[in-house]
Automatic annotation (TrEMBL):
Keyword Magnesium: yes
Keyword list, A-Z: ATP-binding, Coiled coil, Magnesium, Membrane, Metal-binding, Nucleotide-binding, Phosphoprotein, Translocase, Transmembrane, Transmembrane helix
Topological type in the membrane: Multi-pass membrane protein
Segments traversing the membrane: 195-212, 218-237, 416-439, 465-484, 1002-1026, 1038-1055, 1085-1109, 1121-1142, 1149-1172, 1192-1214
Cofactor(s) demanded: Mg(2+)
Active-site residues annotated for this sequence: 530
Residue stretches in coiled coil: 758-785
Protein family (similarity comment): Belongs to the cation transport ATPase (P-type) (TC 3.A.3) family. Type IV subfamily.
GO annotations of cellular component type: plasma membrane
Protein name according to UniProt: Phospholipid-transporting ATPase
Basic and acidic residues bias spans: 44-58
EC number: 7.6.2.1
InterPro entries: ATPase_P-typ_cyto_dom_N (IPR023299), ATPase_P-typ_P_site (IPR018303), ATPase_P-typ_TM_dom_sf (IPR023298), ATPase_P-typ_transduc_dom_A_sf (IPR008250), HAD-like_sf (IPR036412), HAD_sf (IPR023214), P-type_ATPase_IV (IPR006539), P-type_ATPase_N (IPR032631)
Length: 1319
């Protein structure tokens, strides 16, 4: 970011080329056809220019047409300055002819001819440049142009009509997906994109054709209508909520200047050119240029959390020329106008000009004067601005985009299963149709098949093909999608309301942005985590510093090590290890804060060091609302805030910031004012921030702070030698303690040198081409030969529960990679602190020397050496961790270095953990993408808290955002958001795992139950010469997937638990069930389908044998086809619903009610349907007759037992002789439940199992047997189920309870005796 504070100087007409644009614009006066412009250095960016405060993020060269597109509306102002010439007269003549056709103020300036413009247009699109001094001929240039929009003050009635003619969009917000007239066609169009829905649509249409099938159209259409209707209702509900939200936004009140008064209006009524007044704590409805504010200097504070996720306050400032326009009368009579760029997505840059009455030249407008929609005005009573962008043109709406589409692995495999099921269905239809044609022979005389020709057989084949498609359509689980949506929504609801993931201090629960990926969290193999703000709390505190080769502790030092700190991690131990292993000849001695305060006047660099921390920053001070004597600092990063706060603690208090000054208070109470001449703010490329200031002593100083890798090479040679001798060892020591380091340097600049440099700096800052590189090049020139004044060491503490969570996740066979921008030592120390690197041997691909030559060859050589080292030691059973630096990673991720990328991925995937240091956001995304590409079967999760983590979060299969102190952008771009990293274990091990198991069972069961039904239909077809006749009643078939077999599996998929959540934490290896795809695969899918065929065979042949031959009805007759139909369908309903009971592990009253009520619904429906003759037809009173026969009920018992006993037997054998880990845990869980029950019967108080974790070192050594569960003592819970000795028993509580019971009995007896006496 560049901010220039020196005033632009108008340049005269001298010979030579312009040093800003190189086109001679300062040396020659030009007349532009289509506009009149007197060019000077001030007209490039306007007079009193303040460059973009966020410069460096993107170049504006592509968004500006030319520096010669500024307008001066009056040609009379220019004519005397030019004199007279033929070219001038000719140009003025053409200019007047153009002004007769359209107003000068309405002209759009186009510097070059548009590619799509025609030659016969009346308004010229070319830029004709006429040289006015030397009489050269007119020349023309052609190229692509970019038009600007001209905006006038709507409060001035004469100007308002010009905005209306421009036809700017309105400010009405509409985020709805549908309208009242396109909802049905658009929704149906989207739903029929699903193959299953489209297939059922075709079958429903076929049922309307007479003679195709005996299935009624209603029975075929009603399930489809139900599925479409449920989905449509959900879509309509969501759209109505969006419409209501839009209405609330559009009705929000705002003050608009109309007819000379501030008139309350709505956001929807705001138009481009309106002057609006925003009050404190109000959100901005539009993008507007700040005209004035309640603060005297024209500044205002805004919060942009809704826009970029950053919660810190940002400052915006009006032009001094407009800041006095605050009253209604002045604003109404103001005739100024704006010219600005067209709508675009760039949040950090803005180009525009404001035309102020009475000024010859327009003034430049930049991002510092732009307030964006979505921002909230803070700490400012009001702000007045002119609207430039409304509605869809605002930068907020321009940046709005749909998140990347992600689909879970289970859903992808389910779709493959559905496709294969469609193939099976069509093959079955072809086979059955072929047999039906083959049986068209004359020997079946009762079918009247005499004289059948080949043509008749062909017609019959296709007709039967359609019939079978309709009949076997029940093979496709039409309700599967609806059931999955309902189940996932309920699972998401349980996730968001889990008290174990609720962060009470910030009132932050877990949030789900999507419900379609919840089961994917049960299959995660890799976690890619940011460090700062994710593993750490992002609460920075400046702990130590090194000044003049001395280390000072800046916090209140009480003891070297707390009692809870292990001896090997105490500061004294770190110092001893550091001296013995790294720099044995360097003595590490730390001075206290008290010593620093005493030596402060004596140490020359100390005062300059803390002055640098107080001046070189972008922090904003504000008065505490509760205590006016205190200051509260608002910073863009926690690092800057920590530095300024610690400097204030030492005595150098940052007091005030104005447009170009910073005021600090020194320890002696004196005030010092620093005039800020230039500011070159931090960005990811420079990795440093610099401020050029005129100090109170009159000298100009450059203050610079940044990473040691960029500061040290810019020091003088003597300073670099001193750094390598002393300070480098101090920084290594700080990094060993896990502290973030920063170097601070200064340079005294001569006035003449600065003036020369500043002139070029302002020219580069005003350049419209390659501005960023020009500015950074000039920064390189001034940031040289600096003097190191000190280095800082900032502590960023680990979040609560991070080591425990990482330990659990690693026990769950999840690999964790840390991707951070910190240096290697800091990242390694944090990795050790959070138990990430505990017990692994490190392989380092890091080069700490800034002068080291890191190229493709050296990186390849290091990778090959690391692989050799890995292979030699892997045989010994060692586990490895890889540490790699961003410069090396650049070659490892390069598309042109595929061999190196393969070496890196193969090495990294075999390591237990990987730490990537000094990586950029694009490299974070590249690492995730490389792993996904190398191992497509692995599932990845990325977690972070800042905007630099967004690309990584969106690239991974699952993105999790931390609602931290770096804003909400990561959380807004993620699939799920949590408040703390420690909740990730609960998110994956509990919710992810259970959702994966439940959803897998839902899909497998859906295929199973439809196989049972459809195979029964197929067997009946085979039994009657493939005549495509239907066995079951059409209405019963229509309700099968919706009414008679849906409820139990839905509640099962919402509530079932194979093991308790606390057991998953006790035995994290239970999570591997999802990583190995044990619960869902195509093999399992077809296994369940085959099991459905087995049950169908039992039901059909049991039904035909039982009722067809051996059982007779009243009167000695056998039962008819309708009896078989009702009996068979009853058996199907009973078996498929009780199959859910067999699969259920966790029983609640809801499960009981769902199964019993679903079975009861079928019997009630059958009884009522067959009791109405007009509806039942030939089935009239069949159910009632059938129920009277005991053989029917006996049949149901026999068939159900025959189907389910093999299932129960198989499960018993499998659990007994081939148990899985979860089967063992279930037995432990059952044993613990029985022990608790016995203890409660004896009167003991037994605490319920919880997943509250205790410190890792609280119970002795860790026991994590890889072969099975053992008594877990290291990672303890409030209790464990399988050991009665760990139950919490309270004898005193028991005695107290018995005493209270005796008192209650005595009180009741006394009351009863009193009542008897009264009687």
């Amino acid at each position: 970011m560049i901010r220039g504070y020196t005033r632009s100087v108008l340049c005269g007409a001298k010979a030579g080329l312009c040093s800003i644009c190189g086109n001679g614009c300062l040396t020659r006066k030009y007349f532009l056809l289509g506009s009149v412009q007197l060019l000077s250095s001030s007209t490039h960016r306007g007079e009193d220019n303040e460059p973009d405060p966020r410069e460096g993020h993107s170049s504006r060269s592509n968004r500006m047409t030319s520096p010669t597109t500024n307008l001066v509306p009056l040609e009379s102002d220019l004519k005397p300055n030019y004199g007279s010439s033929p070219q001038m007269d000719d140009a003025l003549g053409r200019r007047r002819s153009m002004l007769s056709e359209r107003s000068l103020m309405d002209l759009e300036i186009s510097t070059t001819k548009s590619e799509d413009s025609s030659e016969d247009e009346s308004t010229p699109d070319t830029l004709d440049v006429v040289t006015l001094e030397d009489g050269q001929s007119i020349s023309s240039e052609s190229g692509k142009s970019q038009a600007f929009r001209r905006i006038y003050n709507n409060s001035n009635e004469t100007e308002q009509i010009k905005n209306v003619e421009s036809k700017f969009c309105d400010n009405r917000v509409s985020t709805t997906k549908y309208t009242w007239w396109n909802f049905i066609p658009k929704n149906l169009y989207e739903q029929f994109h699903r193959l299953a829905n489209f297939f059922f649509l075709i079958t429903a249409i076929l049922t309307l054709v007479p003679g195709i099938t005996n299935i009624t159209p209603v029975s075929s259409i009603s399930p489809l209508v139900f599925v479409l209707g449920v989905t449509a209702i959900k879509e309509a509900y969501d759209d109505i909520k969006r419409r209501m939200g839009d209405a609330d936004v559009n009705r929000t009140k705002i003050l608009i200047l109309r007819q000379g008064r501030w008139t309350p209006s709505t956001w929807a009524d705001v138009m481009v050119g309106d002057l609006i007044k925003v009050l404190s704590d109000e959100a901005l409805p539009v993008d507007m240029v700040l005209i004035s504010s309640s603060l005297s200097n024209g500044m205002c504070y805004v919060q942009t959390a809704n826009l970029d996720g950053e919660t810190n306050l940002k400052v915006r400032q009006a032009r001094p020329e407009t800041n006095k326009l605050s009253s209604e009368s002045k604003l109404s009579s103001w005739t100024g106008s704006l010219e600005c760029e067209q709508p675009n997505k760039d949040l950090y840059n803005f180009d525009g000009r404001i035309y102020v009455p009475g000024r010859r030249n327009p003034l430049s407008l930049e991002n510092n004067q732009l307030l964006l929609r979505g921002c909230v005005l803070k700490n400012t009573d009001f702000a007045v601005g002119m609207v430039v962008f409304t509605g869809r043109d605002t930068k907020l709406r321009q940046n709005a985009r749909d998140p990347p589409t992600k689909r879970s692995t289970l859903e992808k495999r389910m779709n493959i299963g559905l496709m294969s099921l469609f193939v099976l269905l069509f093959i079955t239809c072809i086979i059955c149709s072929s047999f039906s044609v083959a049986y068209m022979e004359e020997k079946y005389w009762y079918l009247s098949l005499e004289g059948v020709t080949a043509r008749d057989k062909t017609v019959a084949f296709f007709k039967n093909m359609a019939s079978y498609c309709i009949l076997y359509s029940y093979m496709i689980p039409i309700s599967l999608y609806v059931c999955m949506e309902v189940v996932k929504l309920c699972q998401t609801f349980l996730l968001e309301h889990d008290i174990n993931m609720y962060h009470e201090p910030t009132d932050t629960p877990a949030k789900a942005k999507t419900s379609s990926l919840i089961e994917e969290m049960g299959q995660i193999d890799f976690i890619f985590s940011d460090k700062t703000g994710t593993l750490t709390s992002n609460e920075m505190e400046l702990q130590k510093c090194t000044i003049d080769n001395q280390i000072f502790c800046l916090y209140d030092h009480t003891s070297p090590s707390s009692p809870e700190t292990p001896p090997e991690h105490s500061p004294d131990s770190i110092k001893a290890n550091f001296q013995s292993t790294t720099f044995g000849n360097v003595e590490i001695e730390e001075f206290t804060k008290h010593t620093l305060l005493q030596k402060l006047p004596e140490i020359g660099k100390a005062q300059e060091f803390f002055r640098l921390l107080s001046v070189c920053h972008s922090v904003l001070p504000e008065v505490d609302k509760n205590d006016s004597s205190k200051l509260v600092y608002q910073a863009s990063s926690p690092d800057e805030l920590a530095l300024v706060q610690r400097a204030a603690d030492i005595g150098f208090v940052f007091k005030q910031r104005t447009f170009d000054t910073v005021v600090i208070e020194c320890p002696d109470g004196s005030m010092e004012t620093y005039e800020i001449l230039s500011m070159i703010e931090f960005n990811s490329n420079r990795k440093r921030m610099s401020v050029v200031a005129r100090c109170p002593d009159g000298k100009i100083r450059l203050y610079c702070k940044g990473a040691d890798s960029v500061i040290i090479p810019r020091l003088s040679q003597a300073e670099q030698r001193s750094f390598r001798e002393w300070t480098d060892a101090h920084l290594e020591y700080f990094a060993a303690e896990g502290l973030r380091t920063l170097c601070c340097a200064s340079l005294v600049i001569e006035d003449q040198v600065y003036e020369t440099w500043n002139k070029r700096f302002e020219e580069a800052n005003s350049s419209l081409e390659d501005r960023k590189n020009k500015v950074e090049g000039l920064a390189e020139e001034i940031e040289r030969e600096m003097t190191l004044v000190g280095c800082t060491a900032i502590e960023d503490k680990l979040q609560e529960g991070v080591p425990e969570s990482i330990f659990q996740l690693r026990r769950a066979n999840i690999n964790i990679w840390v991707l951070t921008g910190d240096k290697q030592e800091t990242a390694i120390n944090i990795g050790l602190s959070c138990k990430l690197l505990t017990g692994v041997s490190l392989i380092s691909l890091y080069r700490d020397d800034p002068e080291a030559q890191i190229n493709e060859a050296t990186v390849k050589q290091e990778l090959e050496n690391a692989i050799q080292q890995f292979e030699s030691k892997r045989r010994e059973g060692e586990e490895f961790g890889l540490v790699i630096e961003g410069e090396c990673l650049k070659f490892c991720l390069s598309k042109t270095s595929e061999n190196i990328q393969n070496l890196f991925i193969n090495l990294a995937l075999q390591c237990k953990t990987v730490v990537c240091c000094r990586v950029s956001p694009s490299q974070k995304r590249g690492v995730v993408r490389a792993v996904k590409k190398a191992r497509p079967q692995l599932r990845t999760l990325a977690i972070g808290d800042g905007a630099n983590d967004v690309s990584m979060i969106q690239e991974a299969h699952i993105g999790v955002g931390i609602l931290g102190k770096e804003g909400m952008q990561a959380a807004m771009s993620s699939d799920y958001s949590i408040a703390q990293f420690r909740y990730l274990a609960n998110l994956l091990l509990v919710h992810g795992r259970s959702s994966y198991i439940r959803t897998s069972r839902l899909v497998l069961y859906s295929f199973y139950k439809n196989a049972v039904l459809s195979v029964c239909l197929l067997l009946f077809v085979c039994h009657n010469l493939f005549s495509a006749q239907n066995l079951f009643d059409s209405n019963s078939l229509a309700g099968f997937n919706v009414l008679f077999a849906a409820g139990p599996i839905i509640f099962f998929a919402i509530l079932d638990q194979d093991v308790k959540p606390d057991k998953v934490f006790a035995y994290p290896r239970l999570y591997e069930i999802g990583q190995r795809n044990e619960q869902f695969s195509l093999k399992l899918l077809w296994g369940w389908f085959a099991y459905g065929i087995f049950h169908a065979l039992i039901i059909y042949y049991g039904m035909t044998y039982w009722f067809g031959y051996s059982v007779v009805a009243e009167g000695g007759q056998t039962y008819d086809i309708w009896t078989l139909s009702i009996a068979g369908f009853s058996a199907v309903v009973l078996v498929v619903n009780l199959k859910v009971a067999v699969e259920t592990y966790y029983w609640t009253w809801v499960n009981y009610a769902a199964i019993l009520s679903t079975i009861a619904v079928w019997f009630i429906y059958s009884f009522l349907f067959n009791a109405i003759e007009s509806v039942a037809g030939e089935e009239y009173w069949v159910t009632q007759k059938l129920w009277k026969a005991p053989s029917f009920w006996f049949f149901l018992i026999i068939i159900t037992a025959t189907c389910l006993i093999p299932d129960l037997s198989f499960r018993f054998i499998y659990r007994t002789y081939f148990p899985e880990l979860r089967h063992i845990v279930q037995e432990i869980q059952m044993e613990g439940r029985e022990q608790r029950k016995k203890l409660r019967q004896k009167g003991f108080v037994v605490k319920k199992p919880t997943i509250t974790m205790m410190p890792l070192n609280s119970s002795g050594a860790l026991l994590a047997d890889q072969n099975g569960p053992k008594t877990h003592t290291g990672y303890a819970f409030a209790q464990d189920d399988h050991t009665a000795s760990q139950f919490s028993l309270s004898l005193s509580h028991l005695l107290k309870k018995r005493k209270e019971k005796r008192k209650e009995k005595e009180r009741r007896r006394t009351t009863a005796l009193g009542l008897k006496k009264e009687e």
